[in-house]
Amino acid sequence: MPKKWAPGFLCFLLVGGVFGCASPQFYSYLVYENPTAFVRLEFSPWADTDRPHTWNAHPATLSRRQMQRALEGLRVREHRAAPLRWVRGVAEMEPAFRKDEIDVLLSPLLEGLELAVPQELVMFYVSHPVNATKREVTSGGLYVTEGRLHIILSNYRAVYGIPPAGLIYDRRFPLLSLGPLGVDILYVSEDEELVYAEEEGLVDAIFGDERSGEIVLDLSRLSMMTM
Q1: Where are the domains of the chain?
Q2: pTM of the full structure
């Protein structure tokens, strides 16, 4: 399940919103960057320096095949509450990442996990121009806990209008959603135990909000998958 933001992190965002471009760099290390994509390390909002149980299991070493399987197996589908599903049915799934996006992100994500300390997570961002003033943004982060790979999708093909001046939020804060996440994130696999199921409450069951923007994969089972 996604973690709750730490109070210090919320204060930082408030200060950043007030002072705009005067706010300091939020990332701790830039792993990779080009004009339309980047991978970098950022401080984990839920990690408390004095509470080791809040730390991530970093540095972490994954094989290239593990990461490729993780990215290629991710799917998204339009989120539909139960009443809408009864009328229109379940939306079709589509890959969360295009092949060219996986080619760009794969190696930097692996490097980022190897460089990260327990108080950090690995952020990713890819964009495509829509026109001269707008771009389509997919962003989020990933981290490892004991035997588990967590993938957060904060934005999926979100259209962002580039401001003429001021803070460019989509690149500065890739973990923050630019708008409501209108998709469910899933994973396609014949191994039903590869994905850790979330607890579902009554309201979730009725309204179809059973999935968040985070999915958790079993690394050992991911290793056993055939491509």
Answers
A1: 23-224
A2: 0.79
